[in-house]
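Objective 1b: paired records.
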Amino acid sequence: MMKLVFALFAGVIFGLGLTISQMTNPDKVLSFLDIAGNWDPSLALVMVGALAVAVAGFRWTRQHEKPVFGSRFHITLKTTLDKPLLAGAGLFGIGWGMTGYCPGPAFASLALGNQEAVIMVTSIYAGFWAAGLLQEKY
């Protein structure tokens, strides 16, 4: 039960952070990505803050044998760049650039009742499904 309570708490804090920083506003994100036009660099501070939290989190994982509510850390052992990784990163970037949403803010935007977010999240799951089919085929 405590695991679910902490997961809910972490999700709410994450969603609030995305909303306060305006990462759930696709126009704000697209302005950040438009470096050749009307560029808005303010989201760079959000990314620096996120990087600081990630670095602290990775340091914490190196100092502990397992997470508080889990049996092990789920960290990839993969260290090479391959075609599936590069293709996925490319598709992610294209989708982000076209819509102004990445997965976290898209899910957070569902709580705001944003219709575009519903389409985006549905598309994310369609992509998961298609990727699964491709992995089985190849």
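Objective 1b, second protein:
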Amino acid sequence: MRTNVDLDETLVKTAMKISGINTKRAVLNMVLKEYVRKNNLKNILKYRGKNIWEGNLDEMRTM
């Protein structure tokens, strides 16, 4: 999908330098993937301490 956006050139260049990625498109795709990954991890944390798994671990280990 083609989209025109006005980006902060300093941020883009910094992200390119840090990542070692040499195209704006590739660095923006990487940044978007990382944003989604971190957001998904944050959502997983809401289950911390919850006992949502049901099953028999000993039985699963013998399979």
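The chain has a mean pLDDT of 90. The radius of gyration is 20 Å.
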